[in-house]
Amino acid sequence: MCAIICENTDFFAIFAIVFADFENMMDFNTIERFDKIATPFYYYDMDLFRKTVDHVAELASQHNLKVHYAIKANVERRLLEYISSKGFGADCVSGNEVLHAHDCGFPGGKIVYAGVGKSDKEIYNALMLDIEAFNCESLQEIYVINEMAHRYGKKANVSVRINPDIDAHTHKYVTTGLYENKFGISQHEFEKLIEIIGKSEHINFIGLHFHVGSQITRVSEVFALECKRVNEIVAYFERNGLKVGNINLGGGLGVDYDDPDGSPIADFETWFRTISENIVRRPDQKVHVEPGRSLVAQCATLISRVLFVKSGETKNFLIMDAGMNDLIRPALYGAYHKIENLSAEMRTFFPTHQAYDIVGPVCESSDVWGAGRLLPLSVRGDLMAIRSTGAYGQVMASRYNMKDLAPSVFSDRLDEAPVMTDYFE
Ligand SMILES: *Cc1c(COP(=O)(O)O)cnc(C)c1O
Asked: Which among 141, 365, 371, 408 would be 20 to 30 A from 126, CA to CA?
């Protein structure tokens, strides 16, 4: 529009592009309000979060899939309460996650509990809640759960996690479905497994569980392959007399860390379509999916301030008040998060850019947010956005160096945010 009515066409075209790009992220008003909030904090875009969950709920009902949210990605109560209110189930990997999910509105009958190492106490608590399923990962675990169910007068629902031996083409730390990984039961134990299930009177065998990895981006290829393997394995178990009521197709959909504004909602469409097209099921068989990261990653941004700008011998450093204690993914997996200088974008539309090594305050050389990142000229006090931090962020935060934990700040409750103290007043 501008380009047509204004004389200085180029200028306004650029203006429109810069402005449009900026508008996607956060409005000026929000950034101005950030200025009064103590950093670092996790900022939750509740509109985007609800939109994502609603979108997934609708697609899942179209494709007749049951969704269990893997709560380990983010256990923030407000998120869990919304997800449970939409009728999703919860996928938990510890006893405390089971209790927390229950506390946030997920009924026992919609909680599944996976994990290679469940303690007796954790099993006991889950038994008392009559959970939907224990996803068992070893023969010995089935034996122990059967014994405990017997002792406490319960019948435990058991789903068995199978290692399908599939390469998910993702980072080696988040690949789970290969024989070299610790997860699931492998083919050489199938006969024994069927025998143990047959002998265990205090369990209900309800289905099979698979999981191949996280941050999967080759969606059609990996999930089509998984479905193919799963069809074979399900058929094998049914031939051997076990009725597989639930097929739980784990494997986490990837999110776009490079361009969070370009793809704020992950490609659930392709994921669900690939599953419906490739899984063989009877009408009474339920198919489950368990997204964690993809439901929550893009809805949170870690907001930090530049404490100091320092020029090293060969590099310029931006030293931030958020560190690896707040978000360990870069230090742990070398993960990439997009970083933006919000204040600089407020100062001018045409900033000069410079390469910075952006680092945290923690006394570890791996406490680096990004090396050689091109950013607008930055100064002490600038507000910085570390994007796509809703998954595996806050849940992995620690108090290393005795740092305080970064709190949650919600877009619809900015008034409740902790206030920044100005020590120069
Ligand atoms: C972690 C986990 C998930 C979620 O994976 P994402 O990649 O975060 O979507 C699902 N199922 C199980 C069993 C898990 O352990």
From this structure: 408
